[in-house]
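Q: What does the assembled structure look like for these inputs?
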Amino acid sequence: MATSMTAPRPNTRLYDFYREMRRVRTFEERVGELFVRGQSAGSMLHLSIGEESAAVGVGAAMQAGDTFTTHHRGHGIFLARGAEPDRMMAEIAGKESGYCGGKGGSMHIADMSLGHLGANAIVGGGIPAVVGAGLSARNLGTGTVSVAFFGDGATGQGILYESLNMAALWQLPCLFVCINNQYGMGTRIDRATANPNLHERAAAFGLSARTVDGLSVEDVADAAEEMIADARAGRPGFLAIDCYRFFGHARKDKSPYRADGEEAAGRQKDPVSAARTKLIVSGLASVEALDALDKEIDAEMDGAIDFAVAGTEPPMAAMFRDVYAPGEPEPEPVSARLSRVLARD
Amino acid sequence: MATSMTAPRPNTRLYDFYREMRRVRTFEERVGELFVRGQSAGSMLHLSIGEESAAVGVGAAMQAGDTFTTHHRGHGIFLARGAEPDRMMAEIAGKESGYCGGKGGSMHIADMSLGHLGANAIVGGGIPAVVGAGLSARNLGTGTVSVAFFGDGATGQGILYESLNMAALWQLPCLFVCINNQYGMGTRIDRATANPNLHERAAAFGLSARTVDGLSVEDVADAAEEMIADARAGRPGFLAIDCYRFFGHARKDKSPYRADGEEAAGRQKDPVSAARTKLIVSGLASVEALDALDKEIDAEMDGAIDFAVAGTEPPMAAMFRDVYAPGEPEPEPVSARLSRVLARD
Amino acid sequence: MATIETTYRDALRLALTEAMREDDSVILIGEEVGVYGGAYGVTKAMIEEFGAHRVIDTPISEPAIVGAAVGAAMTGLRPVAELMYVDFVGMTMDQLANQAAKIRYMFGGQIGVPMVLRTQGGTGRSAGAQHSQSLEGYVMHTPGLRLAMPATVADAYHLLRQAMRQPDPVVFIEHKGLYTMKGEVDPDAPPAEWGRAAVLREGADLVIVSYSRQVHYALAAAERLASEGVEAAVVDLRTLNPLDFDTIRPMVEAAGRAMVVSEGVMTSGVAAELAARITEECFDFLEDPVLRVAGEDIPISVSPLLETNSVPTPDLIVDTVRKIGLGAAA
Amino acid sequence: MATIETTYRDALRLALTEAMREDDSVILIGEEVGVYGGAYGVTKAMIEEFGAHRVIDTPISEPAIVGAAVGAAMTGLRPVAELMYVDFVGMTMDQLANQAAKIRYMFGGQIGVPMVLRTQGGTGRSAGAQHSQSLEGYVMHTPGLRLAMPATVADAYHLLRQAMRQPDPVVFIEHKGLYTMKGEVDPDAPPAEWGRAAVLREGADLVIVSYSRQVHYALAAAERLASEGVEAAVVDLRTLNPLDFDTIRPMVEAAGRAMVVSEGVMTSGVAAELAARITEECFDFLEDPVLRVAGEDIPISVSPLLETNSVPTPDLIVDTVRKIGLGAAA
Ligand SMILES: Cc1ncc(C[n+]2csc(CCOP(=O)(O)OP(=O)(O)O)c2C)c(N)n1
Ligand SMILES: Cc1ncc(C[n+]2csc(CCOP(=O)(O)OP(=O)(O)O)c2C)c(N)n1
Ligand SMILES: [Mg+2]
Ligand SMILES: [Mg+2]
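A:
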């Protein structure tokens, strides 16, 4: 994973997890800043604060070549899989230097070289693609696994069950990761289903399925490692990760539908501070060392903001590009058509 | 249920079930004849032979005012809920005297006065309507239940799970009846899912769910009565009924994908002859009485064919009717538009 | 009530609220319509007045939301279903086009599906390719579906009220860029006839036919053109099904020139239909082909610059008129 | 191979078979494509040659079939997905229009989605409102999707081969009324350029532009018209995206009259686009508005009489030409 650090540091798994989770959290905080500074492209920014263990725990269990899709709240997942914060932030700002040249934005970041088949603004929209990636892995013998990340809200979407059924039926190397932050926008999970034990549904389709508490990134990683190994062997799985969405759904949502008490309690389920505390209490890292690490990360993410702000909007010429493959004629602009029509005589 | 019989007959539930199942079977056989005689509208005729206990067992457990939707293999269900064979057969023949004036045909029969909200040619397409009917029942306080009938193949459709989830969440008076005839076209259930215990899926969404063997119409009826009573009380359910599709998917399919042995074995699961045997063995009815009944039914269904054949195609004027409500302007026919355009000067 | 000044959003809420007060069978059903008050605030606090049995928050299940509305409409309720973004209509097209639109016909006229599907579309929020589309073309191409797209505050109210009285399914598409727009409405005034276009501006040189937000762009362009000596009429279609040609025909015949302006992508969309239809109806009077000013045949970018220029702008309308040889350049 | 006589159905199978022999990455995925051999027999026995890993029978899950094809296409396979009826495209429109069509663009050109979605449409089997539609209009209105609709046996083969080589998603719509049609194809001959229309008949009086089965109706009508002294040219578009105007323009300019014939419903459909486009391109040469002969704006009935007359017939084409004042009545 792409981070450049200089100080010597404890070589433990938990430390690495902490670092990556901290990077995710700080990145997301900076996304919030970008918005406040009026530099983000729009306000449809969905922060994954509180959900870092899902991104990092599962991300760490994946291997190079493995592919994945994410939902609209996918910054952390992509970071955990090696994204450059600069290009991510630039994409979120709608800049040409972003991962998608400024066309995609926060909800459509992708990078084929890192196996990121794409974030999606359609709840559930990216799930069946991992079935297809699983078919590719099987038929081409790549040995890779494909992971779909989505929220609890996506369990309302029928396409999830169609995909689970196919993966189980064909024994594909797929893992379905449901990041259950308890909410789909303003709807708490118990107002979205009569049975919030989401993994039971996947089990009924014949997948190996379980729920893990996202408070412990190590637990998440353990479960993910096992299930990804299983998936690689043709036993697809479904992993629900319980966590809590610390903030509103998107930047402008202040969650008025949540009682203060609930939010305060929910934010206790903080995988980043849990990891930090454990590192310190168990003597694996000192407060000072972690503070220094946090500062390093702050600097890294400040750099991402600077990079994004310094970028330029894509040129108008980019507008008609990429609708079809390079070499194909571009769609005729409306103004060109009209000029042609009117210049006929 | 609309059958006119004259001979005195044993007043038992099983006898009534037998009669209705026999009516369904004979009707379906006549549909086959209609096709062979070139009198059906098309060949998309899906016979429910082998599935009579589902139609009759569940149908008998429903009450007046209850509503339902069916899949494409729904003749038997509608008969069991009181349809007139004449108008059904006429609809299947595409005649004006049919239930839908010849516009709907076998796959789109409906009759609001009998609570039939419609058969559907889209696998799974009619399922969510019962959720809506359940909302109506709840909000309007009608005390009615709405039942979705569909095949095992529809368990591939995501919309089923969306509907199950809603029904359970809102505790609606709905029953989902999956007629598991082991096949969706040429695909046996074990090639369509890794876990053919279909009711487990519904249970995972919080519905009361079970599977019953369709060989015994009494068992089906018992289960349906209980589950419909539960549904009426706000506890929606899912009932899978195991049976076997005796013939091909539609009229032209000879099921080459099934071994002869399999078909022979499958056809042992015959709810009609099982009921007949039980009636005789237990002394509830004599062979002669049943033969006489069968003959009566033959005559009834022969009459349906005659009625259908005697009918006329809907008039051309019907073509632009019913796109919108009565009183709304009808769509302008293409030829009228063209005449207008060309007559401009 | 007399004429009030309000916003497009509040006018919509007023229409829903009044209908629900008048008729117990009206329900709202969709994602976040209740506790959250609607993603764009249209149904704010309505759950408090009408309760959770009439303002129904759903799971994220667009196909079944539409399907449930169909079933409810067939059994005595008057559902107003909400799709948070018209971009999600793709997953509901089966329930919408194969069920809602065809039930009356397939069943030989036995029953209708009196439901409204409220949704919103269009660009303006950097929401990207899957949250910025104008997909009315799919709907207009589907016989059996009525289609209303209000451009004004008054129509936000009146068209929605009328939509809720239709015997057939109505897709009602709001524009995300109009919710905070202010305007006047008299809820008690008799509304314009359902299906009738509104002439918002007279003009002898050219008739601009549009709907939804582009009506405002057309009006802005017409103002600028007027200062250049060109008088463009602006017609707001209000509903795309029914489609009112009786209003347009004499105007185009008189002006001899027509432009259609639509945010939907050009090819095979609403602008194509309007252009083809005007040509059919007014061929002998046209001095130029009907000009199609429509969305580009591309997805929408999140980049604000590309987004803005992916759909018609007042500038594009003005420039096009100038190209005709009317206005400044003439 | 030299020229062979075969059916539309077998030509399709040949195209699929050869592509699968040449390229291991090609897979077929859809309902009943394997053991059953395809609902219309196109993929008959292919599972025996290529095995169940390449000819993949699926559960009845149209949205996920298309979604899985998208993911497969992004990761190295060349999926040919099958929708048994184009009528089911509604439930897949999200995966098709929001995913397949937009992925290249949204992701800044990083990757394409080289998949083919094979399906079939049209009337002719008394299959009713949900199994008889011509929904190419939805597809054509979606930027990013290529659209091919073969009318001839040769094109069944060549267009499908070409579709499978495209870098972008292609929706390939066959016509259920053509599967048993016989014709000639030379699989080794260099095919007509992808995106190029075919002039199937020359004629100085009128240009009929069509595609899919209606091409044959247009040819039949043109034959009858010829006996009345009217010479109608017939153009088969072959692909609707790309759309070839270079072939049509000079023909219409020369004839001064054009008719478009499409089985899809008229309003806001393919015929609207073609009419609008021809008018734009050839306005000064047109003696009449472009005539739209298209599907009625209604659902399709199961009654054979109503079904037949819900879409253009050779009679309707002939009668329309006569109305112009050309032919018998003139
Ligand atoms: C198909 C679809 N429906 C609705 C939305 C609007 N929407 C965006 S995010 C969201 C909630 C999603 O909840 P969840 O899946 O739990 O993800 P989270 O936001 O909690 O991470 C909704 C309703 C959408 N983008 N796509
Ligand atoms: C959405 C959709 N997909 C596919 C089909 C084609 N089709 C019609 S019936 C059928 C099999 C359905 O199987 P099942 O639900 O088990 O019902 P059965 O025919 O066994 O009664 C299929 C695939 C269809 N009509 N609708
Ligand atoms: Mg959530
Ligand atoms: Mg079945």
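Chain B touches chain D through 52 residues (CB under 8 Å).
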